[in-house]
Design brief:
single chain; about 250 residues; alpha+beta; Hepatocyte Growth Factor
């Protein structure tokens, strides 16, 4: 019986990625990839490419889209993978793609896949009874630096919206020995106002203040940022360099 073989030139990195991609099952009808790591990639059409650009984690050249998806699985931050069949470029992103309703043109040569995974695969912990995850960062940053770090990971500072959510979070924080550690959470107030808002401008309705808080509205260095400490909310200057909690969704 006659058999033909196709040879491809690959470096060691691509060989390793290709071997890991053996665990993928390509379903021709559903365009869904499944793996032995309980992850999957769902094909996304009509993607807003402009929205994804600021969140590129890396760009590489791969032999095919299977290897590209393997690269995404190897990154704890990767949410979306885009493979260009023309130049064989593979870009991985830290956010989920939004529908392309801005009129931007997306070439048909780029195939986008959104990763489906658990919080733990991204180094996060699940928020009880939600599709959201959180992570306490060990690095101390200012409020601006903390917000940027969370955005780079595809999320934002954690938005505590209920007593149930706070109580669950406090249990985890106490278990880690961080109950008395000050942590940035999402929330700010505009100069001269007493209303507190999340960074998306939603007005906050749950505020679990410590006794005597908030107390920094009229300080020389206004305390217009929100921090969590010992289970209560405190106002604080945005210039403080402290640890923080990020929140992101599982997709």
């Amino acid at each position: 019986m006659f058999r033909s073989f196709v040879y491809m030139k690959m470096d060691c990195r691509e060989v390793n990625a290709l071997l890991s991609s053996i665990f993928f099952l390509l379903c021709n009808t559903g365009s869904v990839f499944a793996t032995d790591r309980s992850s999957s990639f769902h094909r996304r059409e009509n993607v807003n490419l402009t929205q994804l650009q600021p969140f590129v984690l890396s760009t590489t050249t791969t032999v095919n889209e299977i290897v590209c998806l393997a690269h995404c699985l190897d990154s704890v931050l990767c949410v979306t993978a885009g493979y260009n069949g023309n130049d064989k470029s593979c870009r991985i992103y830290s956010v989920s793609p939004s529908p392309n309703d801005s009129g931007d043109t997306v070439t048909t040569q780029i195939k986008f896949y959104r990763r489906k995974a658990t919080c733990q695969e991204f180094g996060y912990t699940a928020i009880v009874n939600t599709s959201e995850c959180y992570k306490i960062h060990p690095t101390a940053l200012t409020k601006t630096g903390a917000s940027k770090e969370c955005q780079q990971e595809g999320g934002h500072l954690i938005r505590i919206t209920s007593s149930h959510m706070l109580e669950s979070l406090i249990v985890d924080i106490d278990y880690l020995g961080l109950l008395r550690t000050y942590l940035y959470i999402d929330g700010y107030r505009r100069q001269g106002e007493t209303i507190w808002r999340f960074s998306d401008e939603t007005i906050m309705t749950f505020l679990h203040w410590n006794i005597g808080e908030p107390n920094g509205m009229n300080h020389t260095n206004p305390e217009d940022a929100l921090i969590l400490g010992n289970g209560f909310f405190h106002d604080a200057p945005q210039s403080f360099e402290i640890r923080f909690i990020c929140q992101r969704s599982i997709f």
